[in-house]
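Co-fold these.
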Amino acid sequence: MMNLFLTRLILQAGPSGDILLREGRMYSVLAVLLVIFLALVAYLVMTERKISAVEKRLNDK
Amino acid sequence: MGKILNIGYKVLAVALLAYILIYGLTVVVPAMPGLEESSRNLFYHVPMWFVVITLMTISVVQSVKFLRMSDPDRDKVSGVPLHADLKAREAARTGILFAILGLITGTIWGRVAWKADFAWNDPAAWWTNDPIIICASISLLIYLAYFLLRSSFTDEEQKARISAVYNIFAFATLIPLYFIVPKILPGLHPTSADSDAGGGSFIFMREGIDNTYRMILYPAIIGFSLLGGWIYELRMRWAIAARRLDEKEMSTGVAGFTEVNPS
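Predicted complex below.
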């Protein structure tokens, strides 16, 4: 999803996309994307922990 | 050692993806004719296909492993055959996810690069009859049929065996669809036969792209591949745990995981 959002953003920028960089708007966008990215990583880490717990329980039985 | 590697590749994936996100969006990239700022999409669209090829390779390897494990005429190969089938299924599933992402990012890019004059609500703006796009769509349909085939069997052994054979066929079609047909036909992609690269992989050619692109694209390929590997690993471990849970519950006569959670 983040990837799609990124693509849309870049493409919407079009030929004059460097305006985003010049005016510093890219940094707000980047901050939002970093939050989404960190949320994705946190989700993967939490899922990993849950799976490890299930595996441990299965091995203990 | 195994645990360090297991954590290490995930840390590397996060570091590389953070790098391509930050540097890929803020670095000043040299202009590509006709693409301008949209050329940054190279860092997010191209790696998707590398992930697809990697995951489909894992999938076919697991299918072959399953067939070898379940062949009574061969020497015993260690491991549970049905687990190899689950690994093949999950690798193909994750591969399909990245193929869909690759097609969507490509479609949006194509809309800007090739169909800029079309209105956004014109369906023709979102599709181009380019050999690579057609071949990628065909390959996606072939892999979707793999899941359709799987769903038509109830017997686990039969499902695993027939879908493993089909998976080998599906992987074999990837080679002409990704590496031969688009490179011998004229098209709009820079890897087409009539492009400057003359059917070659321009991203690896000395004159293909500027080094600024390489500094982000190559880590992006590795980063997204590791992310794909991570997602695959989680899906595969979960599928195997669910199967083991089912087996345990069946042996005790209680409803199994898939009976309680059919999805």
